[in-house]
Amino acid sequence: MTLIFDTSTVWLEIPDELQAEAWQNSESVDFLGNRWQAYLNQVSLRGVQSYLQELYGPDAPQTTDPANHPQCWGMVNGSVITLGETRFVIVPTEAMDKREFWVPQEWVDIPSWVGDYYLAVEVNSDEGGLEVWGYTTHQMLKAQSRYDAGDRAYCLNGSDVIQDLNVLWVVYDLGSEPTRVPVASLAPLTVARTQALIQQLGDGAIALPRLEVLFAEWGALLKESELLQQLCQQRQHRPNSAKSTTPVSSVIQTRVNQLSRWFQAVAEAGWRSVDDLLADQPELAFSFRSEAIAGDTIRRVKLLRVGTSEDAVLLMMMLQAELDQQVSIRVRLLPATVSLLPAHLTLALRSDTGDVVQSVQTREQDNSIQLKRFRCPPGTSFQVEVSLNGMTVSEDFIS
Question: Mind listing the pLDDT tens digit for each residue in 203-214?
Answer without folding.
Answer: 877 888 998 899
